[in-house]
Amino acid sequence: MALGKSVEKVLRLVEETTGLPVHVETDASLPPNILAKVTMARGKVPIHRVAYQPDRSASPDYLIVFQCGFVLRHYSLLPADRVDFANTDVAEQTVRQWVSNNPKMPGMTAQNIAGLTGFLYNGLLSQLRSIPVGLRVDSWIMEEYPDLAPLQQEAALKQLSDNAAGLRPDVQATMPKEALVASLSMSAAFAIYWAERFGQPQLTLPYLTTGHLAAGQVLYDIWRDASIDPGQDRSLIDAWASKLGLQGWYQWVPSQSPS
């Protein structure tokens, strides 16, 4: 599939900024709720890899540019200031307690507890790591690459639909309350952002009617009032973690990205 001018421009920008090439490919093995992902160059792997779902969009252009935005924010910092987000044992231990003590699902087997624990803590940390910084990337795309607006809206609406799965009765009836509150608070903040950008306040109604909108508004206000400087992305994530009670679930470690 031929890529548009904006994609070609951003790919060149990433290569000029990082001094490393970008490999773009389809990946049908990505989870259904992950439209695309980027694996930045690390250690002895001197290439950035952007993978996207082959059949989830009319065109992958926006998805590719969005993932490249994370690379550009990371490499806009001096090498000594770049850090990576790494899970700690606290995340798994805390969520295991939530799952083991969940009154909605008593008598779970050890195998099921382990599987659900991994699913939940990885999902929560993925949201924490990606949503606040991802909204910075989306704002940049809207300003710099308005030709991608239709594809951006398509992807955002798909993500909003995926996020709303956490409000389904079967999920509410089985998942630990603590995990639901944290996840839906972040999803509500995401919905508030797009409701404002699209002029569609109804996008937040599912969170209003289920009582999660206020917590999402707190996170959104933190995001809105924080500096847009990439050097402050770490502080922004930390501020969300503090509000969500996820402190200690991760640590910042020196980046292994090639300098």
Summarize the structure.
The protein is mainly α and 259 residues long.
For this entry, give a set of tags.
two-stranded antiparallel sheet, 259 residues, 10 helices, 57% helix, three-stranded mixed β-sheet, mainly alpha
Question: What is the element layout, followed by pairings?
Answer:
Elements: H1 5-18, E1 22-26, E2 36-39, E3 48-52, H2 61-75, E4 83-87, H3 89-100, H4 110-144, H5 149-163, H6 169-172, H7 177-198, H8 205-209, H9 213-225, H10 233-244, E5 250-254
Parallel strand pairs: 1-3
Antiparallel strand pairs: 2-3, 4-5
Helix pairs in contact: 1-2, 2-4, 3-4, 4-7, 4-10, 5-7, 7-9, 9-10
Account of the protein in words:
With 259 residues, this protein is mostly helical. The protein contains ten helices and five strands. It folds into two domains: 5-79, no CATH class; 85-254, no CATH class. The strands form two sheets. Strands 1-3-2 form a three-stranded mixed β-sheet. It has a two-stranded antiparallel ribbon with strand order 4-5. Strand 2 (36-39) and strand 3 form a beta hairpin. The mean pLDDT is 95.
